[in-house]
Amino acid sequence: MYKNATMIYKRLLLFTIITIVIAFVYIVYVSNVAKTQYLAQPNELFISTEYQHINFDKDRNDVFSFMHMQKTGGTTMEKHLVFNIKNSNCECEKTKRPLCMCYRSDHTEIYIVCRYIQPKWPCGLHPDLTTLKECTPNFMNNMYEEKDRRYFYGTILRNPTYRFLSEFRHMQRGAVWQNAASLCRGKMFGSQTKSCFQGIWTDLTLDKFLSCPYNQAINRQTWMMSNISAVSCNFEEIMSRKKLKKKLLRIAKRNLNKLSYFALLEFPMESQFIFEKTFNFEFKEPFIKWDTGFALEYLRSFNVNTTMMHLVSQTNDLDHQLYDYAKIIFFKRYNYFLHLYGKPKYKRSNGKTRFDLNGVKLERIKYNLPKSEVKEMLLRKKREKEIEKLKQSKGNLNT
Predict the structure, then answer these.
(1) Which of 97, 117, 154, 378 has its CA 20 to 30 Å from the CA of residue 75?
(2) Is 72 buried (19+), middle (13-18) or exposed (0-12) by CB count in 10 A?
(3) With 0-12 CB in 10 A as exposed, 13-18 as middle and 19+ as buried, what is 19?
(4) Is 68 a catalytic site residue?
(5) Which of 80, 126, 170, 320 is catalytic?
(6) Global confidence as pTM
């Protein structure tokens, strides 16, 4: 009897030891796997909660700086910032293009940095996030006294396929961003990249727009959210090498995760709600649909086939991955504030606002026209000059 009890005890002890060893090995293994995943994709496993504890105070030393990526709805968002915030203390000149300075209560300095302040585009034309973060503190210190301030950054993202098509239509209207302010290792990124065209892009088609390997419209949201200086200053190299593309996307996701605020063009009301609760502001007019329709009008008018749409999507693969990730973070933030404050109830005021589409804008969308007759005339002259140059260069080659 005693011998049997001793035998059972020894077996239980052995079983216990073996179980503990197996459990220990398993925990170490899982821990190593988790560490490997974290090092590979830290931002995809751990979503930042910094936005929950910002406590923005416009009357102290807080500054909000907005990054405007091309054709994402940034112009409308910036107008909301300077015209639409209650008790914003923004002073605007009555000019055709807004010029607004949004001051703290004591009028010592501004607390919003965007394209509509004086000087316009204070950090240059369409700077990327890294450039903006380097510039904004320097700008504030140069404008006012040098002191400790808290800086918060925001932007707006858009469905990559429609954003790309919208930039294509914008380029067809004669727009060029050769002087865009994004820097790569201290030099203008545009100057380090070959150009798809000279002057303006005459006779531009979607095929040409897609096939140019130097076209910075490709995956624009990803490379502007990332840090190109940490990847490569050669745009064609970035977009042709999988390793560099992965690195670019990884940095963009990490930056987006840490960003104090970002809006999504396709979700205006949710974007408004997140902004108001993140920064403790309130807008006078609710956000309306941002997508003004240049891309959609193009799709309707030119019957773009599914093969071409797939090619547009495939070409902007990084932007689509970034946008899918952005939606996860966006609705995580939205649901957090929804739980705290309940569903927002926005009501439009009677009458039209500066955010409504008027007949002139609708005509511009339909016919893809520049903003004014003067701009249209200048564009026509530029095109004539470019076409003449092409004819002359062809003539010289033939002779």
Answers:
(1) 378
(2) buried
(3) exposed
(4) no
(5) 126
(6) 0.84
